[in-house]
Amino acid sequence: xxxxxxxxxxxxxxxxxxxxxxxxxxxxAQLSDWLPFFASIASVTVAAFMIRYSRxxxxxxxxxxxxxxxxxxxxxxxxxxxxxxxxxxxREISDHLSNAKxxxxxxxxxxxxxxxxxxxKAVRCHTYIQLLLDPDKDKxxxxxxxxxxxxxxxxxxxxxxxxxxNVSEANKEAHIKSMDDGLSKCDDLSADISVKTSRxxxxxxxxxKNLE
Length: 212
What we know:
Number of strands: 0
CATH architecture of the domain at 72-209: Up-down Bundle
Number of helices: 4
């Protein structure tokens, strides 16, 4: 290879290296020209993501609010039903005990018409109270048992009263004492029923306050 040819090859290599160095030198400037474009793309992407996220978040909040409102409405309906139930139970128990006291007073005053009237009313009250109470709950069962005992006791006293006219003088005093004992027992039973009823209503009122 001649000297000229070697010099020509060296010149070509130097020219290629110079072009490479120039390209490397210009690269940052070219990249910087693209930065605003990349920045705008990133901004649009972030904005689109935030809009989508805000829509999803708003939808979730709406669904959560709807579930909360539905739960609140159900709780209010249940609470209202409980209050109505408590008022009905309180009213029927009050009527039943008042009726029992009226029956006992009629027995002591020999008021047969009142005895018959209150006896029929007692059956209605007792039956309605049974429908209001839940036999699967212990406190309700205790109240039902106490009501049954009171009803049986009053019936027993009424029976003794109508048998009194056929009782001999020798047994009359003992017969009247049995009636008096029965009347005293009815007073105790009535007080016990009031306490049991109050406890049941207290439990239910606690559930109303807690929206259970």
